[in-house]
Amino acid sequence: MKVKPGIEKIIEEKEKYLGLNFGLLTNSSGVTSKLEINLGKLLENGFKIKKLFGPEHGIWGAVADGEKVKDVIDPRFGLLVYSLYGEHLKPTQEMLEGLDGIIYDIQDVGLRYYTYIYTLGYVMEACREKGIKVIVLDRPNPLSGKVEGPVVRKGFESFVGGYGLVIRYGLTIGELARYLNEEFSMGADLEIIKMDGWRRDFYYDNTGLLWPTPSPNLPDLEHTILYTGMCLLEGVNVSVGRGTVHPFKYIGAPWINSKQLLETLNNFNHQGIEFRERTFIPFSAKYANELCYGLEFYITDREKAEPLKTALNLIHALIKLHPEDFQWDHVYHDSNGVNHFDRLIGNPDFKNLLQSGATGEELVESWRKEEKQFEELVQQYHLYR
């Protein structure tokens, strides 16, 4: 049986919403189970969508990661699209003028690094301040309800890590909205339109839905599973395959000895994930147009695979094999001197431990307690079994 996403459920219940003026926060992942654009279906069914809002990558999901997005007019529907990843991260009160609420419909990936969830948080705050409603159309967590990773430490919150979340938080976007509203006292007038048929043990390919490509560098489920860990490599001076056909499935750099790296990584117990040597040339991002030597990863058993542990063992191996070439990435340093790896993992201790020789196994064991505490905390916000 195919999972029925929130966009289809709200259309079934449309009578209670007709006559209200809405803004729609969405992107190209906002489709029905038949791949119909959510905006078109809402308008066809009598919803009054007056304004559009877009997250990182823009409302069409076409802009590169980290690039600021401008306000535009949607050429098909003629509606103004306010960017929430440009001059403003949070909607202004003027943007919300004349609206009775914001409808949120974006496919999440269930990982703390993903900026869409912080856009949702800002929208919830702004709508509370304006006194209007937030309606979240729920969608599957593609990585199931499994919880993994350390909690982000206070003082290390950012637009890629915040809200006391672990890295893989195991919640649907509707459940996450409930968590944000209660745990952070947002006080939004929040309504969740639940899915039909989703279960906590479902990965995206169990849903019967086609992959909606939530952002340009996550073309399928395998890449998204790998992104769980390989995103941490964006905090060091290697390519994670951006600018290739396999982002987060390739890692490499011109200075890496791929044979030694493969041999070192094979000394660890990595179940459910296989790797091989891979040479590639990114056409953009780090090491654009340079020959990179590294590895390619394959998920062979997603229930056993631990991409976070694998990524940390990769960093451990790079420090050991290439102490003169390896660097923590300074590109993303902020004014407080916090670098990108610390933002991504949410705790400065882990970088220091890796530098001192700690392995992925040791780091994963160090956060088991807080991982379990988070899992227990969020059970009260579950909408599905």
CATH H level, superfamily name of the largest domain: Uncharacterised protein PF07075, DUF1343
Uncertain regions: pLDDT < 50 for 5+ in a row?
none
CATH class category name of the largest domain: Alpha Beta
Q: State the helicity in percent bands.
A: 25-40%
Gyration radius, in Å: 21 Å
Strand order of the largest sheet: 3-4-2-1-5-6-7
Structural class: alpha/beta
Major beta sheet summary: 7 strands, mixed
Helix/strand order, N-terminal first: HEHEEEEHEHEHEHEEHHHHH
Mean pLDDT rating: 96
How far is it from the N-terminal to the C-terminal residue, by CA? 16 Å
Oligomer: single chain
The percentage of residues in β strands lies in 5-15%
Q: How many E strands?
A: 10
CATH topology of the largest domain: Rossmann fold
Give the name of the CATH architecture of the largest domain.
3-Layer(aba) Sandwich
Describe it for me?
The protein has 385 residues and is α/β, with parallel strands linked by helices. It folds into 2 domains: 6-212 and 377-381, 3-Layer(aba) Sandwich (Rossmann fold); 221-346, Aspartate Aminotransferase, domain 1, CATH 3.90.1150. It is built from 11 helices and 10 strands. The strands form 2 sheets. It has a 7-stranded mixed sheet, with helices on both faces. A 3-stranded antiparallel sheet has the order 8-10-9. α3 (116-130) packs across α4 (173-183). The chain is globular and about 65 Å long. The mean pLDDT is 96. It comes from Kosmotoga pacifica. This is DUF1343 domain-containing protein. InterPro entries: NamZ, NamZ_C, NamZ_N. GO terms for molecular function: peptidoglycan beta-N-acetylmuramidase activity.
